[in-house]
Amino acid sequence: MQDQTVLGFLSARRYEVQALILVHSLHQFGAKLSDIPVCISVPEGQEMQGPVLDALQEFEVEIIPFAFDEALRKFPFVSKAVASALAEGRAEAEGSVSLA
């Protein structure tokens, strides 16, 4: 059976608390999902810090910064598409998923 990972995307600091709630809920109520790794992609320059980052690190969440061209910001949701593509490429490179 392949390892599974929960992937999240955080595009603004105002969503840090929601990310922490998601991770906490997975660990508390996720049953079989409670022990799987969690990765959150964050655009470079918007890295998390402070108590929320500390709490996520206690849950062993991997924070993955990624480069994002600010010129693309005018397109709604494009940063989510970029983060998803990078996550898929990373998973494929690690052999944890096979994309056809």
Structure description:
- With 100 residues, the protein is of the alpha/beta class.
- It has helices at 16-29, 50-58, 78-94; strands at residues 6-9, 38-43, 62-66.
- The chain has a three-stranded parallel beta sheet, with helices on one face.
- Strand 2, helix 2 (50-58) and strand 3 form a beta-alpha-beta unit.
- The radius of gyration is 14 Å and the shape is globular.
- 18% of the residues are buried.
* Beta-strand content estimate: 15-25%
Q: Mean pLDDT, rounded to whole units?
A: 79
Helicity, as a percent range: 40-55%
Major sheet strand order:
1-2-3
What oligomeric state is this?
single chain
Quick one: overall form? globular
Main pleated-sheet profile:
3 strands, parallel
SSE run:
EHEHEH
Low-confidence stretches: none
Secondary structural class: alpha/beta
Number of helices: 3
Number of strands: 3
Radius of gyration: 14 Å
First-to-last CA distance: 18 Å
